[in-house]
Amino acid sequence: MVSGFRMMFDHPATEAPAAVATDPAIRLTGLRRRFPGAPAPALDGVSLEVAAGEVFGIVGRSGAGKSTLIRCVNLLERPDAGRVEVLGRDLTAVDEAGLRAARRGIGMVFQHFNLLASRSVAGNIAFPLEVAGLPRAEREARVAELLPLVGLQAKRDAYPAQLSGGQKQRVGIARALASRPAILLCDEATSALDPETTAEILGLLRELRARLRLTVLLITHEMAVVKALCDRVAVLEAGRVIEQGRVFEVFTRPQAPTTRRFVAEVIGNAVPPGTLAALPPPGPGEVRRLLRVLFAGPHSTRAVISEASRRFGLDLNILAGRIDAIGAEPFGIMALAAYGAPAAVTAATGWMQGLGLTVEPLPEGEG
Amino acid sequence: MLPWLSPMLQDLLVEAAWQTLFMVGAAAGIAVLLGLPLALLLQATAPGGLAPSPAVNRPLGLVVNAVRSVPFIILMVAIVPFTRLVAGTSIGTGAAVVPLALAATAFIVRLFENALREVDRGVVEAARAMGATRLQIIAKVLVPEALPGLLAAVTVTLVSLVGYSAMAGAVGGGGLGDLGIRFGYQRFMPEVMATVVLILILFVQGLQSLGDWLVRRLSRR
Ligand SMILES: Nc1ncnc2c1ncn2[C@@H]1O[C@H](COP(=O)(O)OP(=O)(O)O)[C@@H](O)[C@H]1O
Ligand SMILES: [Mg+2]
Hints:
The complex is a heterodimer of chains A (367) and B (221). The longest helix of chain A is centred in the middle third of the chain and has 18 residues, at 195-212. Chain A contains twelve helices and 14 strands. Chain A is elongated. Chain A has helices spanning 2-9, 66-73, 96-104, 121-131, 136-149, 165-177, 195-212, 223-229, 247-252, 257-266, 304-312, 342-354, and strands at residues 26-33, 43-50, 55-59, 81-86, 89-90, 106-110, 183-187, 215-220, 232-237, 240-246, 287-296, 315-326, 329-340, 358-361. Chain A folds into two domains: 24-266, Rossmann fold (3-Layer(aba) Sandwich); 270-361, ACT domain (Alpha-Beta Plaits), CATH 3.30.70.260. The interface between A and B is medium-sized, with 29 and 21 residues.
């Protein structure tokens, strides 16, 4: 009966199984952590849920509490209060042995790789298997599977000191995946790498995530990493989540000032300096409004600007703009100076909003 | 060999060389066997270690420092009752090993501790994240990662022991240093003194070169 049920609902092998309403892979509830002697808590009541199979990013400035937060997930850091549930189990309640077993199901990748200098590439990748007590033959077989997965067949017997940063991180990733974990934690996995190598490692993570159906929780101070890899993102500031949502939403409609600054780093739609001062004043009977227009979805290709100009008799001066995509979703962001009769400008704004565009006054700091 | 020395002196020299080798070797062996667990214990119980415990760490550190701060010649005499208890006698080459081993242990513990402290904390953290037990972290991370530093510490200790062993004459331990003092100095035989010094220099050089070579071979950095 079970097999019949499975057959009816089976998907082609390449597709992920239909999401069933299950427990999240990671559920953090009310995490608090204050380091002794610190003036402020590193974590000040953080709650998050990471669904199985998603890539969840946590972005924040240095010192925001990101590392403390991710280290709480495998209890490298024990929170003062709160619950840490991983795959439905409350890890704060299990004993040492149970915790070690749970940790074997959670891979972790580190900013500074943290490889054993005294072990070869193969020895490093085999380390978690050795710790878990796997016999040598099985360890070697697993290492032989993992090396091609991260493209390091030729470096099997090299030592970390002989590897580039990107190669070291590949070893770190292979090691993290050795015990076939369902969850991968990445603590600034690309922050010690140059931009080209960063792109390479992000590509590898994207590929592995799809192939192995991993749940990934990553932390970073770079919004570009979030844009390249994540499905959802949370912004952490002073130990609190100040904003979270789908990456597309957060990028196209950032709410908190910190989030806006993060987003502006990647999709730099800031108006070039001096542009505003150089704008002509409005003519008699006209107003000048500075607007930020967001196109998302089907409208991003329509000639909305020229149509608005014609319909409402406005002069629309494009100050800055950018067309981009997150995953497969295109969007555009534009800064406009609109000149015209007050009623016409208002009408044009309403018309654009009616088309599903977001139109708002140009935020402070972007002009 | 050594035609400028009488056959009797040559025999004495060979015997003294063996005594030095024995005292240094035995004391160093004991120091490594006792020093490594002690250093691991100190490291593990230190703040931020694998099992922080000031109640263990502080007294242990105090004892180690106390032994280290007593000049060797005084330590040797001060622990005569202990030596007699352990070695059955307080005189002779075997008896001299007891204070030498004690001093060398206190010496090497701190050197070992420094070598262990050099191990990247991130690597220990990675091992914890992979579910390693404390013993696994010690055996598979701390000791292998610190091995070059630990070996360098053994070399330094061996070289220092050669110096300490020269004082063993005070308790009838014999050895090259003792021979140099008794014949070269007290009986005005400069050729004996020169030979002893030459052999000690070669000995120490050999130890240092061997130690450095091993450290280089084992170091993967
Ligand atoms: N082991 C620690 N002891 C004391 N303070 C710490 C420790 N780890 C982190 N902190 C402090 O907690 C805050 C958050 O640190 P962290 O989580 O590392 O931030 P992030 O990873 O976002 O840069 C910082 O103010 C940091 O100084
Ligand atoms: Mg950090």
